[in-house]
Amino acid sequence: MIIGIDVDGVLLDIQSPWIAKYNHISGDCLQYNDITQWRMADIVIPEYALSIYDMRTPDLYYIALPICSSQYATIKLISMGHQLVCVSHDRRSHANAKGHAIRRHFPWIADITITGADKSIVKCDVLIDDAVHNKPDILFDQPWNRSDTDIPRAESWISVVNMIGSMR
Ligand SMILES: [Mg+2]
Q1: Residue 167 alpha carbon to ligand 1 centre in Å
Q2: How far apart are the CA of 47 and the centre of ligand 1, in A?
Q3: In this structure, what CATH number is given to the domain that contains residue 143?
Q4: Do residue 56 and residue 83 come from a single domain?
Q5: Residues with Cβ within 5 Å of ion ligand 1?
Q6: What range does the domain containing 109 cover?
Q7: Which of 52, 63, 98, 145 has the fewest CB neighbours in a 10 Å radius?
């Protein structure tokens, strides 16, 4: 199968360095598990509701680490015969840094596609994403998507491998 994999919050933990930067600038003490909504603007101190998005600068991709077990699991999926493609929606300004981070941490994933808002233009059999609005086939569990119960949810990358292994 062709498996599309989102990057932010699925392959790479961009939230941790982003939150750290926000806390440093604002003096807030936001934690990862406090992000219980998709819109960061609704979570941060109101004064930073607009600037929080500008704090996710490309340089953060040089310190962002892989999500737990994502490296093992993506190698495993390839060994199972699947083709992996990174599918990420982002600004043009972030494409180089994000691509560099993927090549550095996931050199076995050859295909990287930066899309506009509509990820459905990338044809894949299975999409793994942490954003409900991207209508993934597998919703990768994160604190910000736990209110959605309709999409099959993977609690971890090990769950992803098991779920794909059971698909026909
Ligand atoms: Mg994402």
Answers
A1: 23
A2: 25
A3: 3.40.50.1000
A4: no
A5: 6, 8-9, 130
A6: 2-13+62-165
A7: 63
42 and 117 share a domain? no
**Sequence-ordered strand ranges (E) for 15-149:** 65-66, 83-89, 111-115, 126-129, 138-140
Ligand 1 centre distance from Cα of residue 127 (Å)? 11
Number of domains, the chain: 2
pLDDT tens by residue, 121-150: 778 999 999 999 999 999 999 999 999 878
Same domain, residue pair 111 and 75: yes
- Distance between start and end Cα atoms, the chain: 9
Give the side-chain half-sphere CA count within 13 A for 69.
12
How far is the centre of ligand 1, averaged over its atoms, from the C-alpha of 129 (Å)? 6
39 shares a domain with 8: no
Please check the confidence at residue 162 and state whether its pLDDT lies above 80.
yes
Asked if residue 51 and residue 37 are part of one domain, the reply reads yes
Nearest CA-CA partner of 10 in 78, 77, 93, 69: 69
